[in-house]
């Protein structure tokens, strides 16, 4: 999760990749660990 969020935050991913990631994450359901890792990268 850290690497994916880092790629998103640094502009290394396309809008389509971000959309696919978010749809997949939503379908799977986010875990507390994933949310925490995402928040740490966004700081």
TrEMBL record:
Assigned keywords, A-Z: Glycosyltransferase, Transferase
Gene3D superfamilies with a match to the protein in the record: Transferase, Pyrimidine Nucleoside Phosphorylase, Chain C
Residue stretches making up the Glycosyl transferase family 3 N-terminal domain: 1-43
Keyword Ribonucleoprotein: no
InterPro entries: Glycosyl_Trfase_fam3_N_dom, Glycosyl_Trfase_fam3_N_dom_sf
Keyword Glycosyltransferase on entry: yes
Gene Ontology molecular function, alphabetical: glycosyltransferase activity
Listed name of the protein: Glycosyl transferase family 3 N-terminal domain-containing protein
């Amino acid at each position: 999760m850290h690497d994916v969020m880092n790629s998103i935050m640094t502009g290394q991913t396309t809008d389509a990749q971000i959309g696919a990631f978010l749809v997949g994450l939503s379908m799977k359901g986010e875990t507390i660990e994933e949310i925490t890792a995402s928040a740490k990268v966004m700081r």
